[in-house]
Amino acid sequence: MGGRAAMEKRETGSNSAQSPVFGTVKDVVARYCRCENCSAYLHFSHVTDFVRNLTREIARCPECGTEARQVTHRLQ
Ligand SMILES: [Zn+2]
User: What separation in Å is there between the alpha carbon of 46 and the centre of ligand 1?
Assistant: First the structure.
């Protein structure tokens, strides 16, 4: 059954080559982790509110002290 395995591998390769990619995941992550003012790397901290079942994500810049983002996630 060695020939069958080779055929499956070739089909998967052609599929991934056809799909267009606009901006890589790495670019998005790099932008998200940087301060908008001084582009220093942000320090993230998570605060979990067990009463409301929410998690707040606070991003604070260690260089200029800007609190960049507060994202609230609902726990499931
Ligand atoms: Zn900053």
Answer: 19
